[in-house]
Design a protein that fits this description.
about 10% strand, binds pyridoxal-5'-phosphate
């Protein structure tokens, strides 16, 4: 950025378009690589030539269209209905199925879909003063966020440390008269295992409670894997008792970010999801989703992506992904000291270390140093810390390079040895009351850990510190830290 333009977004004098784009490209250089199959979280890359250009052109076509009023912009309504229809059909709904009346909405992402599933369930029971939801402990954090935003009590059900699934009997036992929703994941994000959906939906139905299947992650992958012969258990509307399903198109449908679909088995189930308000002097607001003004860009881009790839395209991409998962899992199995948390049954490879001399967080740093970006997961309840790999089709051509890189990174991590935190830091992490973590204290800690200039490449010490801390302390530390990052640029 030039000095005259400053680092804020609004220079005194506007600057030429080409230079603005150069500035954005220069900023982007610091980002992790969104393409190329070496980033195993956050992004979903099919590695299909020309697809980005198509999605960008479609996005541009509809970027200024407003989803606020479907009667003003029928193009958006048509594309939204087409996306919902495609998702419903893929997930066991529509004409000729046991869920012929399925309906849905396009939301801005998985978290929004889950918030709305909880809102619909809550508002379907206005008689309950203190509604509750039953969620496996492996359920996505967005359910905790929904519970928090919507003042619903979260009843987490522990998962078995071996199967990484909740026991059906424990799910049943957690259902109370105030329960408005029971959740199952297909699959869970952290470990990629599919919950026993049919059994969970059955106990929910017996209790007369809605059952939401969070297929945000796997809803656009599992059906293709099943068609390719994988033993995917029933998880969609074919399962009696499943009342709603979420599937993110910005994950395995490979659409640009900002698109998820929330499906309900019938219009009556969806009705309490809507918000309508006429008691003001402006237009009557009718919002199926959380946002009111909505850009048509993400919807058009998703529509173009689905139309272009088609069923044959998704089947091909699923086959590549399946092969990549198998290759990565084999590399992990072949490595002394590493253990798969679960045999892969979807598109996640998750492993832990069972050798105290091999520090997982050091390993993650060593992989990063070699250009492989994995996601560390901190220990939780009786589950050890682990490393998560979201695998997409673009990983397939890279698998052969991953095995030697993993071996090399493991050797380097062993040579470096485990992180040893100073005892006072361990005491700090374990002993703090979250409310004692003042902004000043966290700023001092961040400086001491070298985090004051952003996030360094080597994060093992920070991860070890967080790993030693209880959840409430982790939350507080990281919220304060993100607050430190989010400062206006002048
Ligand atoms: C199972 C599951 N549910 C919900 C979400 C939340 O989706 P988003 O990040 O689009 O809000 C994710 C994201 O990874 C997920 O894996």
């Amino acid at each position: 950025m030039s000095d005259t333009a400053g680092t804020g977004a609004l220079p005194v004098q506007g600057i030429p378009a080409a230079r603005v784009l150069d500035e954005i490209r220069a900023l982007r250089a610091a980002d992790r690589p969104t393409h190329g199959g070496r980033l195993f979280a956050y992004v979903y890359d099919p590695g299909v030539a020309g697809l980005d250009e198509l999605a960008q052109a479609a996005y541009a076509e509809s970027a200024h269209v407003n989803g606020l009023d479907p009667t003003a912009f029928p193009s958006l309504l048509a594309m939204e209905n087409a996306l919902v229809g495609a998702a419903a059909k893929l997930l066991g709904g529509g004409p000729g199925t046991s869920a012929p009346d399925v309906v849905g909405s396009v939301t801005g992402g998985g978290t929004e879909s889950l918030l709305l599933a909880v809102k619909a369930a809550r508002d379907a029971r206005p008689d309950l003063a203190e509604p509750r939801i039953v969620v496996p402990a492996s359920g996505h954090a967005a359910f905790a966020k929904a519970a928090h935003y919507l003042r619903v009590t979260l009843d987490p059900v522990p998962v078995d440390p071996v199967t990484l699934r909740p026991a059906v009997a424990a799910m049943a036992a957690a259902i109370r008269p105030e329960t408005v929703l029971v959740v199952a994941s297909a699959p869970s994000y952290a470990h990629g295992v599919v919950d026993p959906v049919a059994e969970i939906a059955a106990v929910a139905a017996d209790a007369g409670v809605r059952c939401h299947v969070d297929a945000c992650f796997g809803g656009w992958a599992l059906p293709w894997l099943r068609r390719l012969g994988a033993p995917v258990p029933p998880f969609d509307f074919a399962v009696p008792g499943v009342t709603s399903i979420s599937v993110d198109l910005h994950k395995y449908a490979y659409a640009p970010k900002g698109v998820s679909v929330l499906l309900h088995r019938d219009p009556a189930s969806r009705a309490p999801q809507y918000f309508a308000y006429a008691d003001w002097p402006g237009y009557t607001m009718v919002n199926p989703v959380i946002a009111s003004t909505r850009s048509g860009g993400p919807i058009a881009a998703a529509y173009a992506t689905l139309r272009h790839l088609g069923e044959d395209g998704y089947l091909r991409l699923a086959a590549s992904t399946r092969d990549a998962v198998a290759g990565l899992a084999a590399a992990v199995r072949a490595t002394d000291g590493l253990r798969l948390m679960a045999e892969p049954e979807s598109t996640v490879v998750c492993f832990t270390a069972d050798d105290p001399e091999l520090d997982l967080f050091v390993l993650v740093d060593e992989l990063t140093a070699r250009g492989w970006h994995t996601q560390p997961q901190l220990r939780y309840a009786d589950l050890p810390a682990s490393v998560h790999l979201t695998v997409t089709a673009a990983v397939a051509p890279r698998v052969a390079e991953f095995s030697p890189a993993l071996a090399d990174a493991v050797a380097a991590a062993r040579a470096a040895g485990p992180v040893v935190l100073p005892p006072e830091l361990v005491a700090l992490a374990g002993g703090f009351a979250p409310e004692a973590l003042t902004p000043e204290l966290v700023a001092g800690l961040a400086e001491g850990l070298g985090l004051d200039g952003g996030v360094p490449d080597r994060m093992a010490v920070v991860n070890t510190l967080l790993d030693a801390a209880p959840a409430a302390v982790r939350e507080r530390l990281l919220a304060e830290f993100v607050g430190l990052l989010q400062r206006p640029a002048w």
